[in-house]
Design goal:
Keywords: GTP-binding, Nucleotide-binding, Repeat, Ribosome biogenesis
Largest sheet: 6 strands, mixed
Oligomer: single chain
Strand content: 15-25%
Bound molecules: guanosine-5'-diphosphate
Pfam families: KH_dom-like, MMR_HSR1
Strand order of the largest sheet: 2-3-1-4-5-6
Protein name: GTPase Der
Number of helices: 15
Function: GTPase that plays an essential role in the late steps of ribosome biogenesis.
Helix content: 25-40%
Family: Belongs to the TRAFAC class TrmE-Era-EngA-EngB-Septin-like GTPase superfamily. EngA (Der) GTPase family.
Distance between the termini: 39 Å
Shape: elongated
Structural class: alpha/beta
Order of helices and strands: EHEEHEHEHEHHEHHEEHHEHEHEHHEEHE
Number of strands: 15
């Protein structure tokens, strides 16, 4: 995590500002200027971005040598930081001690955000503007005490910190885990054989990744995937009483362990209740979804016509899932699966900033307000994406929303932002 050092001379309000950043009362505020305190670091998060705040505190004020001491301390803190939040007191202006820190900052070449604190009312803004003369860029007028301007300041801090490394799933958690699911005889093991076929021996243990013995590493389009519970697919359990029960337990287990589920449906047969049950499990577990219509070689124009109508009727709720029509037997279009899995993963991991989300919600509510119900009209006040994998949104409202309206919100979210191949979870927090 990137480190933000908060520096400035004693009594400019650093600790109060750190409290603001942390959104809690953890850093102790020292009313006595110049109390010796160690550097303290805290975990902070703003707009989903985590960083560490190092509060350099106040330093011993042994009259002479004060400026030098501060510069020395600041130098240490700055050296270890990725960016620096330099706090000055707008009501006092810049003192020698401030200048000493500025010199250190210039030398360090670290990105600096300048906070002109104690701008408790608009009249003090002019004093904040005077801080341009420090040559550190725009002074952010804030009141750490009242919280004024702290949002803009934090946005600027995020800008100054190094960009978040693109967290590739493979680096963080190993290969993406994929479950091939579907009822018996739809062609799961045939598909697995085609996928693993030539590649299997090559990738086995070559990457040094520890893989559950029931799983297999498969390479598609140059990327490695961990297909989970393939042993359950390969080991062809003979139909016996209770078989279906165990099969569904296994399916459930595979779904839980995967990020993305490839749901195999027999294109030559009518979509069945069992297919729909498995699909429900996938979506309820919040996993990414790819629909595979297998045995395409067995379909003729007539069957395809009817299949399209069945899909429209029974699988309409999954319209957002990437689809691949293929033949596991001949191998035709099996090579399209990798791209579909990646697409589902991109939707599953997609994140929308709070700003974009609320601009969208504002337009949505204006164009399509919630219907009046029992004399009341619940309204969405604000929303935030709490999580990805799957995308989970919290909507703050003035009352409970109709399921139908929630479906509308979900559909509009997809139209606006995409979210291919993933369920979307919407949670409502009503402020009655
Ligand atoms: P699983 O139970 O889902 O693993 O299904 P299998 O892979 O064992 O396949 C069941 C049957 O369907 C086998 O006889 C396969 O040969 C056949 N099958 C699988 N995929 C295809 C396909 O794409 N086309 C045709 N014609 N048959 C297929």
């Amino acid at each position: 995590r990137p480190v933000l050092a908060v520096v400035g001379r004693p009594n400019v309000g650093k600790s109060t500002l750190v409290n603001r950043i942390l959104g809690r009362r953890e850093a102790v505020v020292q009313d006595t200027p110049g109390v010796t305190r160690d550097r303290v670091s805290y975990d902070a998060v703003w707009n989903g971005r985590e960083f560490v705040v190092v509060d350099t505190g106040g330093w011993a004020s042994d009259a002479d040598g004060m400026a030098a001491r501060i510069a020395e301390q600041a130098e240490l803190a700055i050296g270890a930081a990725d960016a620096v939040l330099f706090v000055v007191d707008a009501t006092v202006g810049t003192l020698d001690e401030d200048e000493a820190v500025v010199r250190v900052l210039r030398r360090s070449k670290k990105p600096v955000v300048l906070a002109a604190n104690k701008v408790d009312d608009p009249r003090a803004e002019a004093e904040a503007a005077a801080m341009w003369n420090l040559g550190l860029g725009e002074p952010y007028a804030v009141s750490a005490l009242h919280g004024r301007g702290s949002g803009d300041l934090l946005d600027a801090v995020l800008e100054a910190l190094p960009p978040a490394p693109p967290e590739s799933f493979e680096e963080v958690r190993g290969p993406l885990r994929v479950a091939i699911v579907g009822k018996p005889n739809v062609g799961k093991s045939s598909l697995l054989n085609k996928l693993a076929g030539a590649e299997r021996s090559v990738v086995d243990n070559a990457s040094g990744t520890t893989v559950d013995p029931v799983d297999e590493l498969v390479e598609l389009d140059g990327r490695t995937y961990q297909f989970v519970d393939t042993a359950g697919i390969r080991r062809r359990v003979k139909e016996a009483s209770g078989h279906e029960y165990y099969a569904s337990l296994r399916t459930q287990g595979a779904i839980e362990r995967a990020e993305i589920c490839v749901m195999v449906i027999d294109a030559a047969e009518t979509v069945s209740d069992q297919d729909l049950r498995i699909l429900t499990s996938v979506v309820e577990a919040g996993k990414g979804l790819v629909l595979v219509f297998n045995k395409w070689d067995l379909t003729d124009d007539e069957r395809r016509y009817y299949l399209a109508r069945e899909v429209e009727k029974d699988l309409q709720t999954y319209w957002w899932a990437p689809r691949v029509n293929l033949s596991a037997l001949s191998g035709r279009h099996v090579d399209r699966l990798g791209k579909a899995i990646e697409e589902a993963y991109s939707g599953w991991e997609q994140r929308i900033s709070t700003g974009k989300l609320n601009a969208f919600l504002g337009r949505l509510v204006a164009a399509h307000p919630h219907p009046v119900r029992g004399g009341k009209q619940p309204r969405i006040l604000f929303g935030t994406q709490a999580q990805a994998g799957p995308p989970t949104f919290i909507l703050f409202t003035t009352g409970d929303l109709d399921p139908q309206y929630l479906r509308y919100v979900e559909r509009r979210l997809r139209e606006e932002f995409g979210f291919p191949g993933t369920p979307i979870h919407l949670q409502v927090r009503a402020r009655e």
